[in-house]
Amino acid sequence: MSPSLMNNNFSWPFPYNDLKKLGKLRSFCLANNIFNGDIPDDALSGMKAMRKIVLGFNEYTGKIPMSLLQLPRLVDLQLQSSQFEGRIPDFWQKNLIVNFANNKLEGPIPSTLGSQNASKFSGLNLCQAVKRKIRLSTSSSK
Asked: Model confidence over 15-27: pLDDT tens digits?
């Protein structure tokens, strides 16, 4: 099951507690709405089949939920252009593609995400050493 509520201008806090009842979801797409508020840390707990999460272009606030680290099959995580803040968690999932651009995230990019395209971190308040490292890896890959 892979529901999509993309591009609808929905503008309420999403009921994540109800989402956990759908433990067999493989993907979840809410991009291009006006969803807002914090996503609870345990919002995606137990969703072991989840492969793709697309929440970008909303008005989410708070930290990236730690339950994302509990999704063993996650390969695509799109959180760009919202208001997430704090540090980027140290994701461990193999072959994970992320997009955190244009949020209020700060600090270092975890080493596990070091091979990602630099554009996926644009518009973030990263420390200068991290920005230099991204520029170097981008220019050497051309």
From this structure: 777 777 787 889 9
**Cα 118 to Cα 24: distance, rounded to the nearest angstrom:** 32
Beta-bridged to residue 78, according to DSSP, are 54, 99
Task: Give dist(CA 69, CA 65) in Å, integer.
Answer: 8
Entry pTM = 0.83
C-alpha distances in angstroms, 138 versus 1, 119, 125, 142?
36, 9, 18, 7
Q: What is the pLDDT of the chain when averaged over all its residues?
A: 84
The answer to whether residues 94 and 73 touch, using CB atoms and an 8 Å cutoff, is no
Nearest to 85 by CA among 112, 119, 59, 114: 59
**Looking at domain 16-140, which of 3.80.10.10, 2.40.50.1000, 3.30.360.10, 2.170.120.30 is its CATH number?**
3.80.10.10
Helix (H) or strand (E) holding 104, with range, is: strand 104-105
**For residue 83, is pLDDT > 70?**
yes
